[in-house]
Specification:
The protein has about 450 residues and is mainly α. It is built from 21 helices and two strands. The protein has helices at about 25-30, 35-55, 65-85, 85-90, 95-105, 115-135, 145-165, 170, 175-185, 195-200, 205-210, 235-240, 255-260, 265-285, 290-300, 305-335, 340-350, 350-370, 375-380, 395-425, 430-455; strands at about 190-195, 245-250. Helix 3 (about 65-85) crosses helix 19 and helix 20 (about 395-425) packs antiparallel against helix 21. The chain is globular, with a radius of gyration of 23 Å. It starts with about 20 loop residues before the first helix and ends in a 7-residue tail after the last helix.
Length: about 450
């Protein structure tokens, strides 16, 4: 069935040079091999990873699949989100698998209304549940556990592709899609449509519905009215289909989109807060003092179950940032106006730059302290012994300096974003300062806590 999105007043296109005017970029975007060739390559790598996880050595130190997933891919994926938005979602093997299932057995039912309404909450819950399961069941340290997680996600992709249209799983159910959507808002690339050209278009929304040149937009985005990069995977289907060359691809200052969120959503702000708490708990559980903390809790409360202790700590890590943001929002509501929940919703987006920085800084340790494990586990996979060899690419001191720099940039980006949000609310300069003040204090607290945790010795995964 052809869908016709209801036109709304279009946002102004982002300023800056259109990258599609550069011949190499335009050639890639309009090529019939993009993104298909990259998708098939990703599918092949995915098959190797799953095989290694399930059949290869069941010690994480020796398993190539574990190294590729948790030492290489997971640390690099936030970098891609910031640099090129959700472009990974174009390459992701899950997306290609969904397309294949849909083509073979799909019934193309419309997206259920409850998914459209509550999908982001499902994504939030998944992200929290997977993080909890990792620590309680040792998913990262278990190749088999990681393999089963990937197979469970694969099953969900197959079921979704068989029943629902387009990439319903990617848009409304994928936990990584939710994370990438938040991070892509802070990204440096924006695909938009020229509203002046679109106003004269008679092509019946071919950019959205698909045409002879390329399929429909997989993530249900209509370029003419799109004002966010959260659900654009840069697949270039709209570029190929548009008969008027109205699509632009421009560079923009990182975090710019966060300054002008027209329809802030509480669930997206909650995800930003949850990510902050998850980064904290990930750091704490990797510290060399974590075992001492467990022993102290056990001695004090008489609880010996790791699952119970971690669940309590995890709950605190998730609720504390949310409570602090709520407190800052309450103070702002009393000093400068607005309600607690409206302020929480709007200024939750200001946490995203610091989320990205903390996530990158945490994963930087795995990438640089354990990066050689990718090479060594590949040698193990072909029968060579690499035990006892250091996996570090650089020294711990160098990694910490880079972590501090990232956190500093994150605090600065979040503070500037909070200022732009406060200024965009209208009112006098004094009111802007009064609104900003509690959030500035909150960001400094979060930044200082990140720096403190990164200053402590961290344990290795591999």
């Amino acid at each position: 069935m052809t869908l016709t999105p209801t036109p709304t007043p279009p946002p102004a296109p982002p300023r800056g040079r259109d990258l599609l005017t550069l011949r190499p970029v335009a050639a890639v975007a309009r090529s019939r091999w993009y993104p298909g060739a990259l998708q098939w390559a990703a599918m092949a790598v995915f098959a190797v990873v799953v095989y290694q996880l399930l059949v290869g050595p069941q010690t994480a130190h020796d398993n190539l699949g574990t190294a590729l997933v948790w030492v290489l891919w997971w640390p690099l994926i936030p970098v891609m989100f910031v640099a090129v938005g959700r472009a990974w979602c174009t390459v992701c093997p899950f997306g290609k698998l969904s397309d294949l299932v849909q083509r073979l057995v799909g019934v193309n039912r419309p997206v259920p209304r409850f998914l459209k309404r509550y999908g982001i909450w499902i994504i939030d819950a998944q992200f929290i549940a997977i993080t909890w399961a990792d620590h309680v069941f040792g998913v990262v340290e278990s190749p088999w556990g990681t393999g089963m997680l990937l197979l469970l996600l694969t099953t969900a992709v197959v079921v979704s592709g068989a029943f629902f249209t387009r990439r319903t799983f990617c848009r409304y159910l994928c936990f990584l899609g939710g994370l990438s959507g938040n991070y892509a808002r802070a990204g440096a690339v924006a695909l938009r449509a020229d509203p002046a050209v679109c106003a004269t278009c008679t092509a019946r929304a071919v950019c959205y519905n698909g045409g002879t040149a390329a399929p429909a937009c997989p993530l249900f985005e209509f370029p003419r009215t799109m004002d966010s990069s959260a659900n654009c995977n840069l697949c270039a289907n709209c570029v190929k289909n548009c008969p008027n060359d109205a699509i632009t691809l421009t560079l923009r200052p990182p975090t710019k989109e966060l300054w002008f969120v027209r329809r802030p959503k509480i669930e997206e702000s909650f995800l930003a807060v949850a990510i902050m708490g998850i980064v904290f708990i990930q750091n704490v559980t990797m510290l060399s003092v974590w075992d001492d903390i467990l022993d102290r809790i056990s001695d004090t409360f008489g609880v010996t179950s790791y699952a119970v202790i971690f669940t309590a700590a995890f709950a605190v890590a998730l609720t504390a940032p949310a409570a602090l943001l709520a407190a800052a929002s309450f103070v702002a509501s009393r000093t400068a106006g607005g309600t607690l929940w409206s302020n929480f919703t709007r200024f939750g987006y200001a946490l995203i730059p610091l989320d990205v920085a903390g996530h990158l800084a945490h994963n930087l340790f795995h990438l640089l302290a354990e990066g050689k494990s990718v090479f060594y586990t590949a040698l193990t996979a072909v029968g060579h012994d690499s035990h006892g060899t250091s996996t570090a690419l650089v020294s711990t001191g160098t990694i910490q300096v880079m972590q501090y720099a990232l956190v500093t940039l994150g605090v600065a980006g979040s503070a500037y974003t909070a200022w732009r949000i406060a200024r965009g609310s209208g009112g006098t300069a004094a009111r802007t300062k009064a609104t900003l003040a509690p959030y500035a204090v909150l960001l400094l607290v979060f930044g200082a806590l990140n720096v403190y945790l990164f200053a402590l010795p961290m344990a290795h995964r591999m």
